[in-house]
Design goal:
Blueprint lengths: L2 H34 L10 E3 L5 H8 L12 E8 L9 E12 L6 E2 L10 H4 L4 E5 L7 E3 L1 E2 L4 H4 L5 E8 L3 H9 L13 E6 L2 E2 L4 H9 L10 H4 L4 E6 L2 E2 L9 E2 L4 H6 L4 E3 L10 H13 L3 E3 L1 E2 L2 H4 L3 E5 L2 E9 L12 E2 L4 H13 L3 E7 L25 H11 L3 E4 L8 E4 L2 E4 L4 E3 L10 E10 L2 E11 L7 E2 L2 H12 L4
Parallel strand pairs: 1-2, 4-7, 9-11, 10-11, 10-24, 11-14, 12-13, 14-15, 18-20, 20-21, 21-23
Antiparallel strand pairs: 2-8, 3-5, 3-6, 3-8, 9-25, 16-19, 17-18, 22-23, 25-26, 26-27
């Protein structure tokens, strides 16, 4: 074989080798892509939307997972409702919270249910008096109901339907997490962001309560039935009409000094001094009482050591809510004059200016009024006369509505010894009388009861006012009224609304 032939043969073998190597390389290269579904054989990830998702949820998710998004792995997205807030795992998010609401004048309080999805079923809701709304749409003009005995604004992890969105992918951290960052960073009401404020009516730790204290020897006795409930609020208020005094006895409206323990037990933060009996024990006792409140960091409203201090409204700025709290005396006495202690007398021009200024600042405005009393306490049986504000001396309805017209959001009567009706009026709510929280009037059924207004504020908005009735008897230990009795008295009061 010639040298030229040998050279040609080697070249041919070399080319065949290169071709075979290239063929093998190409086979391996494309074979790898075929089996791994990469390269030209790559199948893009698909987003699978479960039928459990609502139209609004689908729209929101599709705005993220658009056609321009190139995913390597499939994504599975679904939703589920829970009656208790679950512990969230990777890819699970709290998308929304839904709560049951009913008409403001409906005194139903609770829904018992085992399956949360039923609460959104038309067939189930067709004959019900409530509807489900997003927590963002909750307002005080509709009444929030409990679910299975849990009230959402007291629990935050129960008493609602919690909507959980789940996203699952083999490459969740790499692909999905960056895409949905911030999508479900919803700020929902929580214990840290909701301001709870309990308002109560007449407190007069005096007369027969003094006699009872001498017998039991311990002022803590009177708060036993309420202290756990009331001390749980961020702010607790009452209108105390009785000053602490060394001259307290079983016949006068003066309080044994030990009664400060009763008020501390209920976690009192705000004491209203609009009452017409705070000077019954004399000027020195009234001033010493103010000193006692200051010593225990109890804020005062509607009264003070002189006319100027009595007229100063209480400014509340907590948990993102700003409240201007005004309290006036328009009653049978007790108002301060000049440098003497007493209640803040109502003057129309001053009130109109003060309320307007607070509204212009963007504050929520509460106005309490010590008004003329309905005195139809003449029977040992149930007497509904004082349920009706038109049976109070003067034009209670017209005056309280006028305060709403001036800009008040909530108006509360704190002079009534028996609970009175309540109503929505204009853009606000009126509670004409709250009744006796603590007093000795146990011989008339009406005067043994009172209403606690449990306010819930979120970002300056009043989410709800829950009306919680109380009662006491000859023991003079106030307690929460049982559920059936509470419904009965509230329905009776509703029948008396103007």
């Amino acid at each position: 074989m010639t040298a030229k032939s040998r050279h040609g043969r080697r070249l041919k073998i070399t080319l065949i080798g290169i071709f075979c190597f290239a063929l093998i390389f190409i086979g391996v290269f494309f074979g790898f892509q075929f089996f791994t579904k990469t390269g030209i054989f790559r199948i893009p990830g698909v987003v699978y939307y479960d039928e459990s998702l609502s139209e609004d949820e689908l729209e929101e998710l599709r705005s993220v997972f658009t056609d321009d998004i190139d995913l390597d792995k499939d994504v599975y997205i679904s939703a589920k409702n829970y009656l208790t807030l679950p512990t969230l795992s990777q890819g699970e998010f709290l998308a929304n919270i839904y709560v049951p609401v009913t008409d403001f004048y409906n005194m139903d309080t609770n829904i018992d249910i085992e399956e949360p999805d039923l609460l959104f079923a038309d067939a189930y809701l067709s004959d019900k008096s409530f509807t489900m709304v997003s927590i963002d749409d909750l307002d005080a003009k509709r009444r929030l109901l409990s679910i299975n005995g849990s009230y959402y604004l007291d629990n935050f992890d129960k008493g609602a339907v919690f909507r959980i969105i789940s996203l699952s992918s083999e490459m969740y951290d790499e692909e999905i997490a960056p895409l949905i960052e911030g999508l479900y960073d919803n700020a929902f009401p929580s214990k840290d962001s909701v301001l709870t404020f309990a308002q109560s009516g007449v407190t007069a730790l005096s007369r027969g309560m003094n006699a009872k204290l001498y017998n039991v020897g311990d002022a803590h006795y009177f708060a036993e039935g309420l202290k756990e409930y009331l001390s749980g609020f961020d702010l607790t208020h009452t209108s105390n009409e009785s000053s602490f005094s060394d001259y307290a006895n079983s016949r006068n409206i003066c309080s044994d000094k030990r009664f400060i323990d009763t008020l501390l037990d209920i976690g009192l933060d705000i004491v209203e001094l609009t009452g017409n009996h705070n000077l019954d024990c004399g000027v020195s006792s009234a001033l010493e009482t103010i000193d006692t409140y200051n010593e225990h960091n109890i804020k005062m409203v509607g009264g003070g050591s002189d006319a100027d201090s009595a007229a100063v409204p209480l400014e509340i700025n907590e948990k993102g809510s700003k409240i201007s709290f005004f309290a006036y005396n328009l009653s049978t006495g007790g108002a301060t004059m000049g440098n003497y202690p007493g209640a803040n007398q109502y003057y129309e021009e001053d009130a109109a200016t003060e309320i307007s200024a607070a509204k212009n600042r963007g504050d929520f405005v509460i106005v309490d009024v010590q008004y003329y009393e309905c005195n139809a306490y003449v029977a040992t049986y149930e007497d509904a006369t004082c349920d009706y504000p038109e049976n109070t001396p003067g034009d209670e309805i017209g005056f309280f509505r006028h305060l709403i017209d001036l800009g008040a959001d909530v108006v509360v009567g704190t002079s009534a010894h028996q609970p009175q009706t309540f109503e929505l009026y204009g853009d606000g709510a009126i509670y004409y009388g709250l009744g006796n929280l603590f007093f000795d009037q146990s011989w008339w059924p009406g005067t043994t009861r009172s209403l606690i207004l449990a306010h819930y504020f979120y970002k300056g908005k009043l989410l709800q006012t829950k009306i919680v009735p109380t009662v006491y008897d000859d023991s003079l230990q106030t307690r929460l009224l049982d559920e059936e009795s509470a419904k009965w008295i509230l329905r009776r009061l509703i029948e008396a609304k103007p």
